[in-house]
Amino acid sequence: MFVVLFIAVFGPPWTLHYWQGWTALAAFFIPSCVITVYVAKNDPALLERRLKAGPKDEKEIGQKIVQAIALVVFIADFVLPAFDRRFGWSPVSSWASIAGAIMMLIGFWITFAVFRANSFTSATIEVAENQKVISTGPYALVRHPLYTGALIMLFGIPLALGSWLGELVNIVMTIAIVWRLLDEEKLLVRELPGYAEYRGTVRHRLVPYVW
User: Fold this and answer.
1) 36-40: long-range contacts, CB 8 A cutoff, minimum separation 24
2) Does position 51 have pLDDT exceeding 70, yes or no?
3) Which residues on adjacent β-strands are paired with residue 91?
4) Long-range pairs for 145-149 at CB < 8 Å and ≥24 separation?
5) pLDDT digits 0-9 by tens, 26-40
6) Half-sphere exposure at residue 61, Cβ-oriented, CA atoms within 13 angstroms
7) Angstrom distance (rounded) from CA 80 to CA 143
8) Closest C-alpha among 109, 114, 138 to residue 50
9) Can you tell me where the transmembrane regions are (predicted)?
């Protein structure tokens, strides 16, 4: 993954003199590695669930499509800003790039909080054996905090890379995530005991007091 994103970031501008690129990669890979090591040590079952990911592991055709779209958009989140860096279509200030990197870190912090609260955080839509409803930690604020963290991180990437134009692909990602979570909620209501009651208690899906 590092090699792919390194090429995605530094290939289009054809230069390593791109501090925003180094900052964005650091803001992505350092917390990713820290979280992975923590989960591997403290909750290997969760790590196994998270590694079972991608279109091939989804059961529903609609979710296979969503996962495929998400993968393309994720790569585009790095590639489009890199081309923007080369051609100067929509540069942002240094402070905006720093803010984008901070958004990435916030997104990973939320992800870490979700993993600590919920050992059943699967990368695919499923209900595992002995899974129970979690209503503490970030789940006390919104029903899908992992998606909240992911979106904050994703919207931070183009800014961290110095591009406004790159945010366009995140509109597609937002639509894909909303589609995914609405489909996921149908399954959870149907198959996870207590989820319907939890949904009545925690009213918002992604953004507290908004939606």
Assistant:
1) 38/112, 38/115, 39/115
2) yes
3) 163
4) 145/110, 145/113, 145/114, 146/110, 146/111, 146/114, 146/121, 147/177, 147/180, 147/181, 147/206, 148/110, 148/206, 148/207, 149/106, 149/107, 149/108, 149/109, 149/110, 149/111, 149/113, 149/114
5) 999 999 999 999 999
6) 0
7) 31
8) 114
9) 20-40, 61-83, 95-115, 136-157, 163-182
